[in-house]
Amino acid sequence: MADKTVTLEIKRQASPDAPAVWERFEIPWRSGMNITSALMEIAANPVTADGKATTPVTYDSNCLEEICGSCAMRINGKARMACSALVENFEQPIKVEPLSKFPLVRDLQVDRSVLFENLKRVKAWVPVDGTYDLGSGPRVFPQQQEANYPLSNCISCTCCMEVCPQFNEDTGFVGAATIAQVKLFNNHPTGKVFKEERLRALAGDGGVQECGFAQNCVEVCPKQIPLTNAISDVSRDVLVQKVKDFVRS
Amino acid sequence: MAAPKIIVVGGGLAGLAAVIKIAEAGGTVDLFSIVPVKRSHSVCAQGGINAAKNLKGEGDTTFKHFDDTIYGGDFLANQTPVKAMCEAAPGIIDLLDRMGVPFNRTPEGLLDFRRFGGTLYHRTAFAGATTGQQLLYALDEQVRRHESEGRVNKYEGWEFLSAVLDSKGVARGITALNLRTMELRSFQADAIILATGGVGAIFGKSTNSVVCTGSAQSAIFQQGAYYANGEFIQVHPTAIPGEDKLRLMSESARGEGGRVWVPRTVGDKRPVRQIPESERFYFLEEWYPKYGNLVPRDIATRAIHKVVYELHMGIDSQPMVYLDLTHIDRATLDHKLGGILEIYEKFVGVDPHEEPMKIFPGMHYTMGGLWVDFDQMTNIPGIFAAGECEYQYHGANRLGANSLVSCIFGGFRSGPNALAYAKNLSAAEGDGGHAAEIQRQTEINNRLLTNDGNENPFKLWRELGDTMSKHATVVRYNKGLKLADEKIVELQERFKKVNLSDKSQWANTSFAFTRQLGNMLELARVIVGGAALRDESRGAHYKPDFPDRNDEQFLKTTKASFTGQPSGPRFEFEDVDIQHIKPRPRRYDAAK
Fold first, then answer.
1. For B417, which of A165, B8, B135, B189 is 20 to 30 Å away at the CA?
2. How many CB atoms lie within 10 A of CB B57?
3. Which of B31, B44, B93, B95 should be substituted to probe chain A, the one whose Cβ sees the most A Cβ atoms within 10 Å?
4. For B476-503, how does the pLDDT look when each residue is reduced to its tens digit (9 = 90+)?
5. pLDDT at B1 over 70
6. Chain B partners of A124 at a C-beta cutoff of 8 Å?
7. CB-based contact (8 Å) between B25 and chain A?
8. Number of A:B CB contacts under 8 A?
């Protein structure tokens, strides 16, 4: 198998203003190889398939086991994590591109900080009084834990936002990941103290109403988070909140 | 005097824990991290977090947790800080629970606990098999709250390069590199907390994340900080061998009843599930009847090595053994171990509910790290350290599920201690050394960019990893350690001829990597040199030529300091605090 190779076509862009170019690489195949290890191989030998010297590819990666959420990119047109993308499962040449809905930094690296800003907007935390010892937390029955745990598995990869037709500059939509976090914290016995504020934050433009029910998010989520359920539940709560606020005003 | 300014470097559990304590006390923090903090390596911790809550009616106590930790660490850890950690652990679990960590529950709604290695008690709280992820998120959320209230400034995408020291050697800030714009800058601070994690990259392939290079620790070691017990490297018994990394298969798999075995007949050709019970060699259960599959990691790792390399009983003559969960029902597995089973299935393509997993030991954790005093401060005034990057809590071998508690405890201690130190700090003379340090860093950067040699940094790194994995992991010989040290020196020479294939000044990842590599090489010499000097076997450090623990000579902390000379680091030894528990022989074939 010495001469078996893998062919990749990678979309390169030296900076946000530079033109995009495609580079083709042929690298030695190894069993169990994933896209991130192919990118590491290119770094050790940065030469294109036609023998031209180039630079190592810039991309985000960290844990390489699909839990840190860093290495999201488009592989053969589909948004996914590069570390769990085993090359043997893809038709070659494997086309690798950056996510398209986020500001490009360089090559396959994009700026996804919008998600962390959204999490601030909806107060995605439990407001504990302090970190001093205040005894046990609230009782939580296993059924509740089992409902919340999947929502808490979100790795902030932003794949759900990338594939959402409504996630764009026109709508300002927050995207499925943030909405699922609202459900998580509104479910928590202490976290729900901010329930009304979170729902109001999702009531206006860019809020939950922007969802067009394409259901792409739930299909693409690498952690199988029940995103569409979360969106329906939060939509209903937002509506109820709107009615309450209307009656009160 | 203005409110003290604290810099925290690293946004894993230890760093975030420190940030929260400082913010809560009214201080302001600049938080530096290579990656967005929510993507830190703490997310990879799987199995759980230890605390003697005694919720299973077993009579567990914090003293028993303390004793298990000291005994598991083969008596090398200073006992006073470990005792304090074990006493604080139940309160830490309660706090995490209040922050909303979705810990698994009992039917009554209380925290559930499972067993882990090196103890006979159910002492490990867990959130499925993604406990580290859940804990990190809880702290990340609290930090985001403080950030939105203006007490925390995040510098994500900035890499720490060095400390700024004044003419008296007191820390006055840091220099850091913006990984996008490649801007080099110095930042003022009255105290600094390093919480920069592990050193896995020095071994090439490990269970660690890409950012775990030990670069920050190495940088301040080269500025005068002691590095302690560097030779103590934990090799986790159960990892999935991989092309690019070794993926951890949590100890919780054994905590929930997983069994490790190989076929009794070498080259048994039957499908694995058709091999009858009587023809399976459950070597951990046979050799260690009391603890069985839950012996500490160093013991399990050496047993697997023995089965593979001495008894030649690896599966299909490969360096692999089975980790078997197939006798446990699917619902229990999914509920308690879902996250790790998914990793195995995704990366290996085999369903571990149906077929035993094939695993092998992999480099996992450094017990050694920056030397700190009981207040978490290094020997450089004003630089504190917490988490895996310091040496304090695990002695010669860390027990599973003790790392998360040590990270949070160390972070919680270092934050207030740094604040107290900073409040008493007198003003710096002149610019506190900022201009000189920027100058020094600029020169290092320029050398890297203008070199015209022919060495590729990624290839040098592979050679380093191969050497370290071969000579400085499970089994160590003085001859091999000498070869390793010579190899590192050779790599350091070749490093001077590194030619970067990318010299641009925008998001240049190979430039940042090459700086890390230079630091990795320095720290590699500390690991190898410490191992060479320690002619005994203790915890994870095993020399067949010196198979016994030698308390008379080596019940000591190894302290390395930087010399800048070709001869390498200087080593000295310090007595260990053993005031609470008298050292006794460590054995796991019987109850201790």
1. B135
2. 7
3. B95
4. 999 999 999 999 999 999 999 999 989 9
5. no
6. 141, 144
7. no
8. 189
Residue type, B315: I
Report whether pLDDT(A1) > 50: no
CB-CB neighbors (< 8 A) of B38 in chain A: 69, 116, 156
DSSP B78-115: -HHHHHHHHHHHHHHHHHHHHTT----B-TTSSBPEEE
Structure tokens at B369: 């790290």
Hey, of B140, B213, B346, which one would you mutate to test binding to chain A, going by the most A CBs within 10 A of its CB? B346
Q: Is the ipTM of this complex over 0.95?
A: yes
Segment 512-571 of chain B within 8 Å of chain A by CB? 513
Q: What distance in Å separates the CA atoms of residue B283 and residue B310, rounded to the nearest whole number?
A: 13
Gap between the Cα atoms of A41 and A56, Å rounded:
9
**What is the DSSP track for B156-210?**
ETEEEEEEEE-TTS-EEEEEEEETTT--EEEEE-SEEEE-----GGGGSS-SS-T
**A-chain residues near B349 (CB < 8 A):** 86
Enumerate residues 6+ apart whose C-beta is below 8 A from A224.
Answer: A150
Residues in chain A: 249
Other beta carbons within 10 Å of B107: 9
Q: Show residues of chain A in contact with B247, CB under 8 Å.
A: 64-65
* Inter-chain residue contact A40 with B39, CB threshold 8 Å: no
Question: How many angstroms separate the Cα of A64 from the Cα of each of B345, B349, B454, B540?
Answer: 15, 16, 29, 26
CA distance to partner chain B, nearest, from residue A148 (Å): 7
Record the pTM: 0.97
Measure the CA–CA gap between A227 and A176, rounded to whole angstroms. Answer: 6
| Among B196, B501, B505, the residue to mutate for chain A (most A Cβ within 10 A) | B501
Q: Select from B368, B327, B431 the least CA-distant residue to B558.
A: B368
Across B349-376, average pLDDT: 97
